[in-house]
Automatic annotation (TrEMBL):
Compositional bias (Basic and acidic residues): 73-85
Keyword S-adenosyl-L-methionine: yes
Family note: Belongs to the tRNA methyltransferase O family.
Keyword S-adenosyl-L-methionine: yes
Keywords, ordered alphabetically: S-adenosyl-L-methionine
Originating species: Digitaria exilis
This protein's name: TsaA-like domain-containing protein
Domain of life: Eukaryota
Coiled-coil residue spans: none
Pfam families with a match to the protein in the record: TrmO_N
Region listing for Disordered, in residue ranges: 60-92
Limits of the TsaA-like domain: 99-259
Length: 408
């Protein structure tokens, strides 16, 4: 039989172990509760951020619509006579060079890349044009010149070139009016975030950013056909409605520089390429219905060719940096919280990663898709965009005779 001192010591140790276990359990419960409160606070902050993002996006859309309406009204009131234009030029401030567009782009891209409307699971985001020209060879557009400014004879000989340069205005920038009327208040950003640098900044003049001291764009495109006051192009990165300032032929002997160097961060192949693209059965069944309404004014010969366009556009991740990162950040936060409160946070994370719906507007058709963390794309649906088509648009039927021998 063990001595009383040994029994007392054993009882003391057992009591200490029980007390320690109880303290551990209590600490664990308190820790879980604290983490639960923190997770709830994180969700509250996310909701507040979603509301602020939606408000900012709504205000931005309102500014864009207001500026577009103002520009249309101003363009309608612009003097058409040469004498009136000369008077306006003479009245311009010294050192300025007033210009007016010579034409407008009728593009397959109905919208450019836009900010998401809400930053919550199942939010919708708009995406549009490729980041650079000639990346999407099937991307087509017509440049319709203004007959009052440019006679048809000005295009004579352009069809003999394979490619041309398009100089245009980034007309969807929201700070255009402020930049032109009061440059001192425009607050031009000297550095901008670069997609290939994953958010790192570079000097704006060392990038192709649309937010420039003068919002002028330069793109090269393939000349498919010329007819009257219109030019059909392919490989474009221009959004519908873009004002065109000039067209110049592409000259390989001078425009292509042998041995030209670029920074190392631009030499990374496939930096924005996706892994796979899959078309759902629902999309396959919805596309012919949309195509029956859109084909008359479309620049494409068939629904199959239009589907090839979608595949080319989505083969590169055209989302903005914030759109690519935010759903994944939410999912990563959730995975960390799985050790705390698995059921609620796990469900929240799955929705954040997989519930984001992106929209691509092409030829008056809204194409919705999802993309996961591994860059696998699933195209889910196609619907018509109400009122998106332009009755004066040059469609494929208008170009058919010109394209008879081109293979398009």
């Amino acid at each position: 039989m063990a001595p009383p001192q040994s029994l007392a010591a054993t009882a003391t140790v057992a009591a200490a172990l029980v007390a320690t276990a109880a303290a551990v359990v209590l600490s664990s419960v308190l820790y879980r509760r604290k983490c639960g409160r923190l997770a709830a606070r994180v969700r509250e902050v996310e909701a507040a951020l979603a509301a602020a993002t939606e408000k900012a996006a709504s205000e931005r859309r309102g500014r864009v619509r207001a500026q577009q309406s103002l520009r249309r009204a101003v363009s309608e009131q612009e003097p058409r006579s040469d004498e009136a234009r000369s008077a306006m030029a003479a009245a311009a401030p010294p050192g300025s060079y007033p210009m007016a567009p010579i034409g407008t782009v009728q593009s397959c891209f109905s919208t450019r890349c836009c900010l998401p409307s809400i930053f919550v699971p199942d939010f919708h985001a708009l995406n549009g044009t490729p980041r650079q020209p000639l990346v999407v060879t099937l991307a087509r557009a017509t440049v319709a010149l203004d007959p009052a400014r440019v006679p048809a004879a000005a295009l004579e000989g352009l069809a003999n070139y394979s490619h041309c340069w398009i100089l245009y205005v980034f007309h969807l920038n929201t700070d255009l009016d402020k930049m032109w009327k009061d440059p001192a208040r425009s607050k031009l950003k000297a550095k901008v975030r670069v997609p290939r640098l994953k958010g790192d900044k570079m000097g704006v003049l060392a990038t192709r950013s649309p937010h420039r001291p003068n919002p002028i764009g330069l793109s090269v495109a393939k000349v498919e056909a010329v007819d009257g006051h219109a030019v059909l192009l392919s490989g474009v990165d221009l959004v519908d409605g873009t004002p065109v300032l000039d067209i110049k032929p592409y000259l390989p002997y001078s425009d292509s520089v042998k041995g030209a160097a670029v920074p190392n961060w631009l030499e990374v192949d496939g930096a924005l390429a996706v892994e796979s693209i899959h078309f759902s059965e629902h999309f396959i069944s919805a596309l012919p219905i949309c195509w029956a309404h859109a084909q008359k004014q479309s620049l494409y010969t068939s629904a199959d060719e239009f589907q090839d366009l979608i595949k080319q556009v989505l083969s590169w991740d055209i989302r903005s940096l914030s759109q690519r990162i935010r759903p994944h950040q939410v999912n990563m936060e959730t995975e960390a919280n799985d050790h705390i409160g698995k059921e609620a946070d796990e469900h929240h994370g799955d929705k954040a990663c997989c519930g984001v719906i992106y929209h691509l507007h092409l030829e008056g058709i809204d194409v919705s898709y999802r993309i996961d963390q591994c860059s696998n794309v699933v195209v889910e649906d196609a619907t018509l965009i109400p009122g998106a088509r332009n009755q004066n648009r040059h469609g494929y039927l208008a170009w058919r005779d010109k394209l008879a021998g081109s293979g398009l």
